[in-house]
């Protein structure tokens, strides 16, 4: 292993290293390429797909899932999962709408803060179940998926809040655009950039990756694993709470069934976005791009007049393709890494 | 003036269920002193380390820091108190870069975010001191055991601790890396760091340490100044009886060629490697860490693909990257990385031993649990396995005992060609002789053995022929008479190419 050791490995290293480096970035890049291809093909078949209105719709439609995907990524990175997000969204959307409808005097920012806090509380329940009670996340959050939804049903008691019951100013938040970009998309973008920065640049952010990469090693490294996992769940819950308000503002009509089944879209976006489902790697940017890609595909299929049943099948096929690709890439990287030793 | 020890244990005990791993042990670590902990596999050394590092809380007894009682509620507490630990089993984050592994939780910060450039520079500086050639930016995934161990060492050094605990840091390292580590450790000692060192290579203990504490079955035997002991006396303390000399290989006549490797090349890893192993022979593959020895073994066994060349077992050509076919052809590999490749950590001891030779245990379409248990019991006795029950998962075994299970698993298979990669890594002196005797017996019964080892005495004592690799190439082939410490090291470091 003297200095000349590098000369032996240099032959395969150039290629291997380039591959590794490219693959490291390819997750996000791959989605961008897929998006480009999708827009080119669909746009060629039907130019109206590229119109401002259509693009604006895609952004609006993906904003909420993207926001949820960012939160979910925080949890998945730690080798956990949160299935209960859709119920949290439902609870927060209904709670927010109800307050706005029944107590018109309460200022909107306070309602939004309340919804975020409600979401954070739900996240804390999940986090405590997983961290303190050591229930596997899949089981714990499956339980709370039903529990939170049950609370939602009991609270609503069959009631529905309509757009007419809510203040104009609030509903405008869901549809207004700033410089041509819908406000929910801007909110999602701001959250995305903030969380992305934190994951990369805070020690606690790096610790989330460490926990997911090897929980046992994280304990030995002195990382407070339970606290970090709890934080991830709380942050995810808070974002789900925020997504709930956005839902109410955007759609106007809110009942107890809001966002039912959305958790699968969110996890699909995360997986398509290249976040490893067993933790330790992936970025929020990938997850958000995954959300945009899935929303774009739905829009494209509608524009291309593919019927709704086929759409589900196509989404499924895409998910499988993403998982297979992920696996293949992981194997390639592992093989390349074994060849690479010297700097 | 008698200075107070930096860290001491007073009558600490720790039990796991019925297993009393540590029993009322006291230990004093002093500034500027290297203290060795010796004992057989399962004697309780790693458990003691984990008490010092806050992983385990002692059931009774006290920990004193600078003479004051402390409680470590977790590893973070011990770290804050200035205790840095290199654990026996590497504890890296495979998805994260090597430098982040080293600085996790202590990454240098810039005004905005993390200072990755400073982190890279600090890593390069640490690697420079240790003579490690690794890219700080590469992920830890895919590192060899030796490289993982070197990263662990760098990690512990980076903490600039007052107490540095090293649990078998040298087990996978060859002479050159060990010398570097000892150089660094010596400097730390002069700076007043207290060292605790564990190794089954007794000569290392005598080289580095000033005092030795010996454990047997979890209990303290004695603490002696190193000058009062000879290696034999230390072994007697550990084992509690006289030990026969390290087992030299018995002479056998080599039969026909069983394994033939011709011009094997894996691009960027090893080049043009050709050799043969005959029945009855033990051929050692020596070299420095990173010379490509394990990589050759992995390729021959079919775990990694090769780019050019050929491998034949008993005259039959193997197809690349087909481990199942290799096994069917009579090849067996005891891998270096027992946790990743050798064992199913959650499975029981008997299951793990049975795993590689299920055919022999088959009764019709079913596996006979009785035969499995019988075989496991037999091997447990032969290798002096220390365990509570055969049904226990292997991850509760001590490191050396896990290694014995890996060995048993493959030896039980009776292969025609056996490749062993660091077969005695972490195995105590007593059992080492037993493993050597077993390998020798296997060879005598007609098995061709290829042995990779970083331990020169093992290579010289066991091998009929020594192949030396340097930077991915086979640079020397020495027969038993030619092989000596000097000739092997010269070839391994690239000097004195014949
Ligand atoms: N988590 C655990 N659960 C149950 N038993 C354990 C556990 N950890 C260790 N033991 C047992 O405690 C005893 C001491 O183990 P320890 O790892 O301390 O040995 P050691 O001296 O480090 O041995 P080696 O030289 O093989 O590393 C062994 O019998 C082992 O099986
Ligand atoms: Mg140990």
From TrEMBL, chain A:
The keyword Transmembrane helix applies. Signal peptide: none annotated. It is a multi-pass membrane protein. The chain crosses the membrane at residues 29-46, 58-77, 83-101, 108-129, 179-199, 229-249, 261-278, 285-304, 316-337. Keywords: Cell inner membrane, Cell membrane, Membrane, Transmembrane, Transmembrane helix, Transport. One of its GO terms (molecular function) is transmembrane transporter activity. It is found in: Cell membrane. One of its GO terms (cellular component) is plasma membrane. The complex is composed of two ATP-binding proteins (LsrA), two transmembrane proteins (LsrC and LsrD) and a solute-binding protein (LsrB). Part of the ABC transporter complex LsrABCD involved in autoinducer 2 (AI-2) import. Probably responsible for the translocation of the substrate across the membrane. PANTHER family: ABC TRANSPORTER PERMEASE PROTEIN YPHD-RELATED-RELATED (PTHR32196), AUTOINDUCER 2 IMPORT SYSTEM PERMEASE PROTEIN LSRC (PTHR32196:SF29). This is Autoinducer 2 import system permease protein LsrC. It comes from Nonomuraea wenchangensis. The lineage of its organism: Bacteria, Bacillati, Actinomycetota, Actinomycetes, Streptosporangiales.
From TrEMBL, chain B:
SUPFAM superfamilies: P-loop containing nucleoside triphosphate hydrolases. Residues 7-242, 252-496 form the ABC transporter domain. Its main location: membrane. GO terms for cellular component: plasma membrane. GO terms for molecular function: ATP binding; ATP hydrolysis activity. Keywords: ATP-binding, Cell membrane, Membrane, Nucleotide-binding, Repeat, Sugar transport, Translocase, Transport. It is found in: Cell membrane. Gene3D superfamilies: P-loop containing nucleotide triphosphate hydrolases (3.40.50.300). It comes from the Bacteria. It is a peripheral membrane protein. InterPro entries: AAA+_ATPase, ABC_carbohydrate_import_ATPase, ABC_transporter-like_ATP-bd, ABC_transporter-like_CS, P-loop_NTPase. The keyword Methyltransferase does not apply. PANTHER family: CARBOHYDRATE TRANSPORT ATP-BINDING PROTEIN MG119-RELATED, D-ALLOSE IMPORT ATP-BINDING PROTEIN ALSA-RELATED. This is Rhamnose transport system ATP-binding protein. It comes from Nonomuraea wenchangensis.
């Amino acid at each position: 292993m003297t200095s000349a050791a590098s000369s032996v490995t240099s032959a395969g290293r150039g290629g291997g290293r380039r591959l590794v480096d490219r693959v490291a970035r390819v997750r996000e890049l791959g989605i961008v390429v897929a998006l480009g291809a999708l827009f080119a093909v669909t746009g060629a078949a039907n130019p109206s797909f590229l119109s401002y209105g259509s693009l604006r719709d895609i952004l609006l439609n993906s904003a909420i899932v993207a926001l949820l995907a960012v939160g979910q990524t925080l949890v998945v990175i730690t080798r956990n999962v949160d299935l209960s997000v859709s119920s949290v969204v439902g609870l927060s959307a209904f709670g927010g709408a109800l307050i706005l409808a029944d107590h018109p005097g309460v200022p909107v920012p306070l309602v939004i803060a309340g919804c975020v806090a409600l979401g954070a509380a739900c996240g804390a329940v999940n986090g405590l179940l997983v961290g303190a009670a050591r229930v596997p996340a899949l089981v714990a959050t499956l339980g709370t998926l039903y529990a939170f939804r049950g609370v939602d049903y009991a609270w609503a008691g069959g009631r529905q809040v309509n757009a007419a019951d809510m203040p104009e100013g609030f509903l405008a938040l869901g549809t207004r655009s700033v410089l041509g970009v819908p406000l929910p998309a801007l909110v999602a973008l701001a959250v995305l950039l903030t969380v992305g920065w934190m994951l990369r640049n805070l020690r606690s952010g790096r610790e989330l990756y460490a926990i997911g990469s090897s929980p046992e090693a994280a304990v030995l490294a002195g990382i407070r694993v339970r606290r970090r996992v709890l934080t991830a769940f709380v942050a995810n819950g808070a974002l789900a709470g925020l997504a709930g308000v956005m839902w109410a503002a955007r759609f106007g009509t809110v009942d107890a069934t809001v966002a039912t089944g959305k958790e699968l879209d969110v996890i699909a976006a995360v997986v398509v976005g290249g976040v490893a489902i067993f933790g330790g790697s992936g970025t929020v940017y990938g997850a958000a791009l995954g959300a945009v890609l899935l929303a774009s595909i739905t829009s494209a299929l509608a524009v291309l007049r593919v019927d709704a049943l086929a759409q589900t099948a196509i989404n499924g096929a895409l998910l499988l393709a993403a998982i297979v690709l992920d696996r293949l890439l992981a194997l390639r990287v592992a093989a390349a890494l074994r060849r690479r030793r010297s700097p | 003036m008698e200075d107070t020890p930096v860290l001491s244990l007073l009558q600490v005990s720790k039990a796991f269920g019925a297993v009393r791993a540590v029993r009322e042990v006291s230990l004093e670590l002093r500034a500027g002193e290297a203290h060795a902990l010796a004992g057989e596999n399962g004697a309780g050394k790693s458990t003691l380390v984990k008490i010092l590092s806050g992983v385990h809380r002692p059931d009774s007894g006290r920990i004193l820091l600078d003479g004051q009682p402390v409680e470590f509620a977790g590893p973070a507490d011990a770290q804050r108190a200035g205790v840095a630990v290199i654990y026996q089993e590497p504890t890296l984050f495979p998805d994260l870069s090597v430098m982040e592994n080293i600085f996790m939780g202590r990454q240098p910060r810039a005004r905005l975010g993390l200072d990755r450039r400073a982190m890279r520079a600090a890593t390069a500086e640490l690697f420079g001191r240790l003579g490690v050639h690794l890219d700080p930016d590469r992920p830890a995934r895919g590192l060899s055991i030796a490289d993982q161990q070197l990263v662990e060492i760098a990690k512990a050094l980076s903490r600039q601790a007052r107490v540095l605990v090293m649990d078998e840091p040298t087990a996978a390292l060859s002479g050159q890396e060990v010398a570097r580590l000892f150089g660094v450790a010596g400097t730390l000692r002069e700076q007043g760091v207290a060292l605790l060192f564990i190794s089954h290579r007794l000569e290392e203990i005598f080289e580095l340490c000033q005092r030795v504490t010996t454990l047997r079955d979890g209990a303290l035997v004695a603490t002696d100044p190193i000058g009062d002991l000879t290696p034999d006396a230390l072994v007697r303390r550990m084992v509690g009886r006289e030990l026969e000399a390290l087992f030299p290989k018995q002479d056998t006549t080599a039969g026909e060629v069983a394994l033939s490797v011709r011009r094997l090349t894996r691009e960027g890893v090893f080049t043009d490697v050709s050799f043969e192993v005959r029945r009855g022979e033990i051929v050692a593959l020596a070299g420095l860490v990173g010379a490509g020895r394990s990589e050759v073994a992995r390729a021959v066994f079919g775990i990694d693909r090769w780019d050019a060349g050929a491998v034949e077992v008993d005259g039959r050509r193997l197809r690349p990257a087909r481990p199942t076919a290799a096994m069917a052809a009579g090849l067996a590999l005891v891998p270096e990385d027992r946790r990743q490749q050798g064992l199913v950590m959650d499975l029981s001891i008997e299951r793990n031993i049975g795993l590689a030779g299920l055919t022999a245990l088959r009764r019709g379409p079913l596996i006979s649990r009785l035969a499995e248990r019988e075989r496991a019991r037999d091997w447990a006795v032969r290798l002096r396995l220390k365990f509570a029950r055969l049904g226990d998962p292997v991850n509760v075994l001590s490191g050396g005992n896990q290694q014995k299970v890996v060995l048993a698993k493959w030896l039980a298979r009776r292969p025609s060609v056996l490749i062993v990669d660091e077969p005695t890594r972490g195995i105590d002196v007593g059992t080492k002789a037993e493993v050597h005797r077993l390998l020798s017996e296997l060879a005598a019964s007609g098995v061709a053995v290829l042995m990779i080892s970083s331990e020169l005495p093992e290579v010289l004592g066991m091998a009929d022929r020594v192949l030396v690799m340097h930077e991915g190439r086979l640079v020397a082939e020495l027969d038993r008479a030619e092989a000596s410490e000097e000739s092997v090291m010269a070839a391994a470091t690239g000097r004195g190419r014949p």
